[in-house]
Each structure stands twice: as C-alpha cells, then as structure tokens.
Amino acid sequence: MIKNPTIPRNIAQRCFSLSTSSSLLYGTGVNTSLETTLSGAPAHFCLGRYELTESLLWTPEEGFFLMDLHMRRLLDAAQRCGVTVWAWRAMNVLHHAIGPAPKDRLKVRLRVSPCGMYRGDAKVIPPTPTEPLLLRWASAPIDSTSPYMYYKTTNRSVYDKNLAESSPAGDVMLYNERGEVTETCLANIVIKRDGRLFTPVIRCGLLGGTFRRSLIDAGEIEETILTREDVESAEQIYIVNSVRKWRPGQLI
Description:
four-stranded antiparallel β-sheet; alpha+beta; 2 domains
C-alpha cells in the first residue's frame, strides 16, 4: 500500500492526495520553503520547464523490473512538485512503448510533463561488458542543496557536463561540497569494505535508485556517509542501477 508523505503545515498547498483504489496522485501547490523529507531530500521542489522521468528494465521473461518501486518514486516526486500523475496511465504508456511481443531486453523510458503529457520510448539494451567500468572523479563538487540531485527529471545538466569531460573513463564519480561521495552520472555507488557493502546516504545529494532501494530492503547493502578516501581504499567498487543492475567499477 502506498502512503502519503507528510505535508508540512507551513507549506501553502491544496489537494495533495493519493487514492490507492484508483492509483491517482493529484497534487498542486506552492512551495514556500526547502524543507526536507526524513531521507534528507527536499520535501518540495519546482519542476519548472523540465519533466519527471523513469527508466525501467523490461525483459521477455519477467516483464518490467521493479515496476512498483518506480511508480512509487514517480508518484512521490509528482506530489512534491505539484504535478498530476495517474499511475494507471503511466503504466499504459510504458506497456505501449515496448510494442507487440518484443524479444529483446529493453530500456523503457517514461516522461511526464508539468502539464500532464505522457511520453514513452524503448530501446534495446546491448550486453553489459564483463570488464569493470572505468571511473574518474568529477572536477568540481555538486550542490547538495539542489533538489534536482534528488529527483529523477530531464534536468541532467550536472550529469551531462561531467560526462562530457569523462574521457577516457565511461562514467564520473560525484561528490558534494563537504567531500562526501554521492553517485555517478549513470548509477548509484556501492563499495565493499571489510567484507560489507555500503552505499552513500541520500542526504549527501543523490537520486535514490530503485535497485539501490531494493538492495537496502533486502539487507544486502547498508547506507553510510562515504568519503573519497573510503572509495579509493575500497576492496571493490560497484555501480548499480535498475537497468544494468551490478557492474564492477575501477577508478583511473
């Protein structure tokens, strides 16, 4: 059962509600403060000209991977930025995007605009290489107060800028103004230390990935604050997301 996040009383609002029977989230409101959720993410933000987005793995054997967690994340973000989202409509768009009887593994993307327009597309996922993904550190810290670091939207300016400077690495490790590691441009980070697996806490300034969430819920990884030194001295680095799942990483 999906529950409503608590809406602070001092936030001007109207009609924030979630109907579990109809899977409707309706939200419009005006944000007057940058309050945070229990995880540390801003409780409200302005979507502006951008769109909410989700990217899901689809396979012929299992269908959509972690659909429930993706819908929960979408509905939560929609409520926090005051966008109306129908979950049933979002799922219909996703199913339409995969087309009739596909035989390949697909990355299926959903986009929802501030005015309620839904768009979906799908592309075949090439096989994941077996060798570690080469990683490098970002040249500058991210701003952990920016709500766009916490919610999945089409505002990818921070990620795109860092990826444009990534060569010869395939991805970039990000960190905040306090030197705390956050994520990569494409995935969440997990490190192995003393035989245990750790991932940065959300309040450091990162997107809470759905695969990351499932691993935490299963007790496979733990949340903690990680420094650059922690990552550099780790027994192993992994990058994880719901489309590629696990892949080892290597700093260069």
